[in-house]
Amino acid sequence: MSRDMWDPVVYGRYADERRRPFFELLARVGAHAPRSVADLGCGTGELTLELTRRWPGASVHGVDSSAAMIAKTPRGLSFSVQDVRHWRPVDPVDVVISNALLQWVPEHRELLPRWLGFLRPGGWLAFQVPGNFGAPSHAAVRQVCRSARWAEPLGGLARHDPVDGPEEYLTLLAGLGCAVDAWETTYVHVLQGENAVLNWIMGTALRPMLDRLGPGDREEFLADCGRLLAEAYPARPYGTPFPFRRVFAVAQVPA
Description:
Elements: H1 8-11, H2 15-26, E1 36-40, H3 46-54, E2 59-64, H4 67-70, E3 78-81, E4 93-99, H5 108-117, E5 119-130, H6 136-145, H7 151-154, H8 166-174, E6 179-191, H9 196-202, H10 207-212, H11 215-232, E7 240-252
Parallel strand pairs: 1-2, 1-4, 2-3, 4-5
Antiparallel strand pairs: 5-7, 6-7
Helix pairs in contact: 6-11
């Protein structure tokens, strides 16, 4: 992308909900004493720090394409600004982790075999992606983007199913000779505050649209999205329930 569209403050608004899938992914990685670990799409690096706690003897390096995100990373760790499509480690690595990144990489199915090739024998590749592109939240965004008001500037930005399901990833990775664990989970987050679902997707699904619009148009666009999202996800006395499906895959290359 030509401009840095990621806002660390907006993205971090629901940090607890976004962290949970990472830990459930990490729990299925069986590496015991890896020498080197790569966190691809590391964002602001809080979860990269968790990798150093899991494997204190490893050299851990985080990569993200957003300079704004990397600017917020913890001191004392190793990070770089780089497009993961061009990432190539100097030496083979033992573990590659990618948390909520590959939905932004249309060619990631071709990229995964390349990443497997960067692993040492017995190494691990683990990733999770949102699997909710058919949910009412994304349907609402597509409807707004294709409306007469927004079709010209935004119509091409509404995405359909940029990721696969667990069975497809299992087939891909097993076909490359890996032992694979693939699954899906639907979380029901309870979001608080006014326009809760709108605030959630402002840090993710709406970033390409907001990046393209000027300040005045952004407010109008968000209002249009907010009306549909409020209908699709009515607030309850305890908050706004927001089902969110995620897809996970952990693959180990032969030793």
